[in-house]
Amino acid sequence: MTSELMIKACTFYTGHLIKTHFCTWKDIAKPRTYEDDILAEKMERAMKYDNFRLQKYVFHHWHSYVKGQIEKRKATLSRIKQIYYSARLIIILIKWREKARQKYKKRQDELLLKHELQLMKWRNKIKFKRSAEEQSSSPESLSEVLLVGEIPQCDISVLPERAVLQIFFYLSLRDVVICGQVCHSWMLMTQTSSLWNGIDFSSVKDMITDKYIVSALQRWRLNVLRLNFHGCLLRVKTLKSVSLCKNLQELNVSDCPTFTDDSMRYISEGCPGVLYLNLSNTTITNRTMRLLPRHFHNLQSLSLAYCKKFTDKGLQYLSLGNGCHKLIYLDLSGCTQITDSAMELLSAKCHYLHILDISGCILLTDQVLEDLQIGCTQLRILKMQYCRLISKEAAEKMSSMVQEQEYSPYDPPSWFGYDSQGEPLTEKQDGTPFQDSDLTMKESTYSSEEEAV
């Protein structure tokens, strides 16, 4: 490196150093002339931004409020329109219904008048025909018959549906089936659903088949409310089809020798709405008694007469859990196995019991009447025929608590089928007439009204 280059480098470095320090000193020493203007400009911009944000915030709330008011107004208008159209539609429907009722009533009156006239003509025809037969030789009677002329037969299919139903309601199941085979129009009238609300198979038990019962229950399963199988000899499969009737309210299977606990299990699972149940003289056991409180919570009437295969434990099941606490009618007549312990628990739970029949329950004592006085305060009718262990004094005391009472301290008659110890009667014993029958019938029935006399 030469001396010249060294001098140039030092000169450049010195000049740059002086320039840098001079500019720094200049900035420090010389006051800023435009600092106030810059601050004022910044403050102005800050105020504008703040005012803008404030306006935006206020406008947003105002916009939301206005929008809500508009929507509320629209909802109010739509509601007013809906109320107006509904009121208008109601007025139209009311006028239409009144006009339809008038037309229907007019048509019904015309039909009734027509059939009354036909019936009068038919009666006159029979009357004149009889008089003509009696006085066949008289020309005057013949002229009167000829004046009547031919009269059209009364067609039941032209009657109003309500009148036809009232006619068919008085017919038995066999007659309804026969009427359905007369003609097509009669068959259609017998297929009315309300006609099959109650089916009585006991009236045709000697001729009806299990296949027809199953098909009828499958067809009308949603309409059947009452079923009567009294004395019917049915198969288990037939009894199982009763569970198809979901709306069943009344069931009578009394004197059915094939009715078992398994049949009751299918029925209880499929028909929980049963209110009236008659199981008298069947072979049910404690299994059935356990099913009743589980499924039939609204059961009001129960008949267990002459059901001797369930025990005290089975009767106690009625008061367990939800139980059959709504029972109004209970028939235990002929149940020779029932004792005071079962009746004590039952009377403590069945507070709505109105009618109780314990006739022929030879093991019951005065303790039963004491329990009934405490638990069953609504009891109105009490039957305790042939309860030899219940004293007359206790029965007289109980008669003041009920409206009607039947009591007899004598041994069960022969037609009960068992003796005073509950043992079945032999043929020899069954054939002998029981003693003091007239006296029993005279003294067995008395009520609180007779005591007052």
Terminus-to-terminus distance: 159 Å
- Mean model confidence by pLDDT: 81
Question: H/E element string?
Answer: HHHHHHEHEHEHEHEHEHEHEHEHHH
What is the CATH third-level topology name of the largest domain?
Leucine-rich repeat, LRR (right-handed beta-alpha superhelix)
General shape = elongated
Tell me the name of the CATH homologous superfamily of the largest domain: Ribonuclease Inhibitor
What oligomeric state best describes the polypeptide chains here? single chain
- Determine the structural class based on helices, strands and strand pairing: alpha/beta
Instruction: Give the second-level CATH assignment, the architecture of the largest domain.
Output: Alpha-Beta Horseshoe
**Widest β-sheet, arrangement of strands:** 1-2-3-4-5-6-7-8-9
Strand content: 5-15%
What's the structural domain tally? Answer: 3
Q: Provide the helix percentage.
A: 40-55%
Radius of gyration: 48 Å
Question: What's the arrangement of secondary structure elements?
Answer:
Elements lengths: L2 H27 L5 H100 L4 H10 L12 H9 L3 H8 L3 H7 L7 E3 L9 H10 L6 E3 L7 H5 L9 E3 L8 H10 L5 E3 L7 H10 L5 E3 L8 H5 L12 E3 L8 H10 L5 E3 L8 H10 L5 E4 L7 H8 L4 E4 L19 H5 L5 H7 L4 H5 L1
Parallel strand pairs: 1-2, 2-3, 3-4, 4-5, 5-6, 6-7, 7-8, 8-9
Keywords: Leucine-rich repeat, Ubl conjugation pathway
InterPro entries: F-box-like_dom_sf, F-box_dom, FBXL15_LRR, Leu-rich_rpt_Cys-con_subtyp, LRR_dom_sf
GO biological process, one term: SCF-dependent proteasomal ubiquitin-dependent protein catabolic process
